[in-house]
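The protein record passed on below.

***
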Amino acid sequence: MNGAFEYVFPSIKGVQSGREYFVSMCPLRLIPKIFLFDDDELNPELRAQRTLNKGRVPEIAEYILGNLQSYTFSAITASIDGDVRFVPATGTTHASLLGTLHVNMQSRFIINDGQHRRAAIEMALKSEPSLGDETIAVVFFVDRGLERCQQMFADLNRYAIRPSRSLGLLYDHRDQRSQLTKLIVLKSKFFCDMVEMERNTLSERSRKLFTLSAIYSANSALLDGIDTSNTDETAQLCADYWDTVSAHIPEWQRVKESRLSAGDVRRDFIHSHSVALQAIGAVGNHVLRQPKTAWNKTLSPLSKLDWSRSNARTWEGRAMVGGTISKASNNVALTINQLKKHLNIPLGPDEQRTEDAFLRGQHGK
């Protein structure tokens, strides 16, 4: 290997399952150049990696470019097929662990975990070349013949679990709607103690009636096209709206007063589920444009609406499909239509076309 051209990575050496591995900080400009990425570049036996979802790449690149002072990436994990040697540093306390990893330039690097980050970094560098001097951690495993490459991919992803959407929203300080939703929950007299802030699903015994992710979707519909520049005022306006809505849904009030269990309401009624909340939010987009003094009159018919799942005549094909609640976009649209008709709010042209198509389907059965 002496005399050959080499990549040299300042590294820390470690040991897992009896094998050495190395952790290095690589300049971002180097990432697209040394790591194989396109399926056409890989031998068939290496194509056990997850197929690249090209739709995700621009989203990740935009995240980098939109947060140049605060973006965060976890380490890329890669296998090296080729000659390597580790040269320990001298004159340091941990000389045997600190040093430089020398990799022959004829070696192959295959990403086991991080191919979408790699592609997004390449895309972001085209718009912002100065990013090239920044670094990302890379964990290198030596894998002669890349025999373990597929198994490593399987092992690295076996126990990987995405955080719940609610938890992601709870900790997201960039998304204004996320910030607004958390503030609305705090300001609302009704939502207080009624919202599960971490999980996307609620157990039968949970005392919470809603998830943060469902409230987020509902508020996105509620605030569509509305000026939200004044965060505090917007949050208070929305909190007032949801408090007004809650006054016209008796089951919600009974849960709040501990006269009915949240689990029973979620089991027997649709109004605490995401599809109904999003529809109530969309209706609210119309209500918010009215004077507050008119809200009660507009929303009072909600108290006479039969929200029960057993009311298949109203909800089957809209909020439910085959008796199961559905939050598909078409079901949300049809649930919005049902609420608007119940509240005597005119349907828009697109809403009317959706409604007409649904009714034709019903009559054709």
